[in-house]
Design a protein that fits this description.
This protein is α+β, with helices and mostly antiparallel strands. The chain has helices spanning about 1-25, 30-40, 50-60, 65-70, 70-75, 85-105, 110-125, 160-170, 190-205, 230-245, and strands spanning about 130-135, 140-150, 175-180, 210-215, 220-225.
Length: about 240
């Protein structure tokens, strides 16, 4: 009994010091492997988690990549298994839920920082492109957020009719589009611009307003609204509608 207590004490003392350090000053001054240590301890009551944390960083390269790794990939790291990966997957999910709830707390047009915070948390480290739609009511409050498409996104793989159908199902009055660039570079491609134009035209036919299309990169984003492109495309769509009448 005494031997077991002695061998556990160094790890327990180190873990206690990490927790006290976090409660005193947050994550300031923490190494990335220490952050992972703390997360692994949520599912590992006694075992020393430092070797596993360092092995995960060596395998994936960055803290963000570890958090984004799949459970299967994490379990391939020595010292990480189905039980102690719990903390690694829980914390990003909690962060995303918190930011989404904050996003719903007031009209989105008055809460752009919350929008960018949420999109960066939920999309910036994805390995595949995702196309999200934020469905808004007439007062620009968020009704729902859905990932409608995943994979290589072009005007031929994102179907405007599916976007419009989903908007009508949610009784939305306006929409915000967002997708990520796994390369990390948020600059729009010609395909991105063609897709945005096509979506605005489709939404115009059922009186849906498109406020924004954001491309999320690694730590940065591109806004079609801020660049003036949303307004220009909307004006063209409205003129086409008038000419058709």
């Amino acid at each position: 009994m005494a031997e077991k207590k002695t061998t556990r004490q160094p790890a327990e003392g180190h873990r206690r010091r990490l927790r006290e350090k976090f409660l005193t000053a947050g994550l300031k001054g923490f190494h990335d492997y220490e952050v992972l240590e703390l997360l692994l301890t949520l599912g590992t009551p006694r075992k020393d988690c430092k070797p596993a944390a360092k092995a995960a960083l060596e395998r994936f390269g960055t803290l963000a990549a570890v958090l984004e790794a799949s459970p299967r990939e994490l379990c391939e790291v020595d010292g990480i298994g189905p039980h102690n990966l719990f903390g690694i997957k829980l914390i990003p999910a909690v962060c995303e839920r918190f930011l989404e709830n904050r996003l719903r707390s007031e009209p989105i047009v008055h809460n752009s920082q919350a929008l960018f915070d949420y999109l960066h948390q939920s999309m910036q480290d994805k390995k595949r492109e995702q196309f999200k739609v934020l469905f808004l009511d007439a007062k620009n409050r968020v009704l729902a957020i859905k990932t409608l498409f995943e994979g290589t996104l072009t005007s031929s793989s994102v179907y405007p009719r599916e976007v419009v159908r989903a908007a009508l199902d949610h009784h939305a009055a306006a929409l915000i589009f967002a997708h990520n660039h796994p390369s990390g570079d948020p600059r729009p491609s010609p395909e991105d611009t063609a897709l945005t134009r096509k979506l605005i035209m489709a939404c115009r036919t059922v009186d849906l307003t498109v406020h924004e299309h954001i491309i999320v990169g690694r730590g940065d984003y591109f806004s079609y609204a801020d660049s003036g492109k949303i307004a220009a495309m909307t004006n063209v769509a409205e003129q086409v509608s008038v000419d058709a009448d």
